[in-house]
Design a protein that fits this description.
Blueprint (H helix, E strand, L loop, with lengths): L1 H12 L3 H14 L5 H11 L3 H28 L3 H14 L8 H15 L4 H20 L4 H7 L3 H16 L11 H22 L8 H24 L6 H15 L5 E4 L2 H7 L14 H8 L3 H12 L3 E4 L8 H11 E6 L2 E6 L1
Parallel strand pairs: 1-2
Antiparallel strand pairs: 2-4, 3-4
Helix pairs in contact: 1-2, 1-3, 2-3, 2-4, 3-4, 3-9, 4-5, 7-10, 10-11, 14-15
Length: 353
Amino acid sequence: MVLFEALNLLLTSKRKWFWAGMCGSLSALTWQVAAIFPLVTLTVAAAQPRETRFRAIAATLSGIGLPTLVTVAFFQSHGALYEFLDGFILHNLLYGDRWEPSLISHVLTPATAVTAGYDTTLLPILIGLMMVVYFCLWRRSLHQSLADTLTKDAFAPVLLSFWGVVFWSLLDFQACADFYILLPYTSVGFAAFLDGAVRYLGASEPRRLGGRGPRFLSIGLCIALTALAWSNVLRYGAGAYALDDQKQAAAEIEQTLGDDGRLLCIGVPEILVLLHRTNPTPYVFIEAGIDHRIHARTPGGFAGWLEELKAYDPDVIAFDEDTYGTYIPELMRWLRSEYHREKVGRWVLYVRN
């Protein structure tokens, strides 16, 4: 998503309409929120001078349509077009379930998630965001009207899409991974900050350090960013989040199960991957409204789904205890009545009594 998003912004600024539309479409097919990027490209194309407007719009729509049509044709060829539309659009409209935060929480939730998830790069991120805000206001002041901005400013796609992405992040921010969509903006902002710092240093103190101040600044920055990246490796490369440790924990679970043991995973798909197993239910996750979907589409509702799981009679249930939803208490009553809680590595297991 980040790759196609960045390419969309770049190609839109260069007026490469077809390729910009294609990258925007691919970004949106990765995450629905990214649909803002092909829409921004279409908006900029529609604002072009009359003599080039139709060609720009046609090329943009062709670029947007090609990946979409290929995706639709692929699912249709497998007889799964409804499943694609259902999972990509309808589920979010019919069953999506979000907790209702207060107005303050809409701001604090993203701030807290970013602080926790990007602690070693927090300073560049903050600088980058502040610079993008300044950059947007400054670039807008250079033009007399919005039409001039859209037709004359190469940064128009950044200026337009940034505020939409920020608005969505404040509206529905769930985890630190939701900040990925803002990473290209922080990169542009941080780059602008460094470019200004190097230019200022080179102009104000040309004789100090033999005129090599900008070079020392750039080299120092590379060393600092490399050190930050390595600190992440040291912090998160060992312990419960390391792949080797997860493989070891998975081996312990496999030993507990044996050859004939039955495993159910809810919220912990990585165990299925490491053990090369298939879940007895397609609902690997049941939060964010999926429990409502289960209740609506399973004979007997959510209780009927639980009866199906009981009939499968799993020996071990891997369960993410952060799972939330309306019907989770029903699931927990079953788990606590017939299973006992254990922990292997970072995973919580409910093992048959």
